Amino acid sequence: MEVASTVRSSSHHTVEKNKSRHKIPRDVEKDIEYLYEVVPQLSQIFRIVDKIGEGTFSSVYLAEAQMTDGSRKMFALKHLIPTSHPMRIAAELQCLTVAGGTENVMGVTYCFRKEHHVVIVMPYMEHQTFVDIVGSLSFEEVRHYICHLLKALRHIHKFGIIHRDIKPNNFLFNRQRREYALVDFGLAQGTPDTHIEQLKVVKSNANKGGWSSGRVEVAHGKQKLLPLPPNTRNPAVQSTTKAPAKRSCLPSRMKLTKELLVLDKAPRSVFGERNLNSTNSHKTGTDKVEGPLSKPKKEEVILRKIVSSKRYSVPVKTPLNGQKQKAPVLSQTLRSQKPKPATVNQTLTCSCYMTDRICNVCLSRKQQVAPRAGTPGFRAPEVLTKCPNQGTAIDMWSAGVILLSLLSGRYPFFKASDDMIALTQIMTIRGSRETIEAAKKFGKSIVCSRELPRLDLRILCETLRGLRSCDDGSLPVEFQSSRHPTEVKQDADSSAKKQMSQSGSGSLKRPAELQEMGWDKVSDEIYDLLDKLLDLNPVTRITASMALQHPVFKDIKD
Ligand code: ADP
Ligand code: MG
Ligand code: ZN
Predict the structure, then answer these.
(1) Which residue(s) pair with 63 in the sheet?
(2) Is the CATH number of domain 330-368+370-394+402-523 1.10.1060?
């Protein structure tokens, strides 16, 4: 990077106002001052203008630098949380340096460090927020979007990088300029033959169940943070550029209410993460579990959740007769079919199979160690079931979920705070029998309390988009109201409920408009690709380079 020496006096850290457009909120100003303080070198090069993203693991800022030729250039500064493991940071950087800068993968310009503070400098790419545009994209735009995402995936997979967090927030899209960039290698892992040296280290540690799951643990608040400025702990982002939703998996009642309010503007998700894991049911479930252990390990928590979800399954109002119906829930946990290395516990016989209780044998089983980071709604079945062998196919599944959103106009499509809920939602679309069959192939056994039929993807997407009548009986009754049972929160307050039902699939578009956007003549090919991306079995799931050969892209040139 060639930058002029000093564009900003480094002695004082007053944030200059972004001249033209907006005033920076007070807390963002404070965050910017804090960043100058902890990484003072930045002030000699950058004028930090705004905060553009804040997650659990980083804050991203927009900054301007004066280049040696006198021009000014914008950069994105990603300030990693100081608790990030050095190996993790090195791995993220190496992915960017080795694979980035080409083929729709974000590059890196520079990296600053002072003590435990690391700032990754990248070229700034202006982009839209997915939720704002997903409903207005034309079919051609969708086809190009997915093609460019697949190119990025083909590229990183060639390097043996598994991204593990493929979702729209990590794939920047500038609609006007038709630019795309895959970002955020903060969870990446390597394939056994990865070209990224640092990922080899990450991987071996991950297999030991070590710190690579640190990001997840931080998200659950188990780790103490180093001193941070007061507002760093407040996830509210007030920058004018829309920030992505923060990474979090613990739904609190308050948060749910917030989400419901947001739904008013945003395209609705097809599934909600409602009360299956509400604090109440969780507590009750915990009481129900017998066992000597006081501090639950991860797997036990999951087991308890299942107990509670069984007892508190969601009664659903069907649109016409108002009769209550039980939403399907998983009645049992996932079991490894292969016997594990013998331990004392393994020699005992389990007595809880197919019941809604968990016996002591199962409670004392060792936790299955498998990488499981990412965002529940985008996790592949093999990730949700903690299959230990996970490859690049997991990114392909996530790309399929993105395509599902693009074709249905709904985002997020799967909205789950919990892996079991996410798996149930997958079964609702792809069929329970099919999911169980596929899981068997990778050594996992799933039990589902009700058979869920596999849905036709075209009918599903067209119905959700409003192109097809909901009531012609081609979809199960849950979809005929164009709303899924799990989305109705039993005890949601009535105003929130009202908001949800008002925010349908958005304004129904007029036929002429739909024609213009190409949605009236969508080929079967795209649904064939979708089907191959959402293949429940990772072994047969389409790869990125195969997907790019798919007939749906035949007229798109590189
Ligand atoms: P995290 O690990 O916290 O999710 P990301 O790398 O995904 O961090 O960045 C968070 C957000 O910051 C992105 O979703 C995007 O909106 C914004 N962002 C990241 N990198 C860039 C960039 N190079 N240009 C523009 N915006 C960026
Ligand atoms: Mg991200
Ligand atoms: Zn048991």
Answers:
(1) 48, 75
(2) no
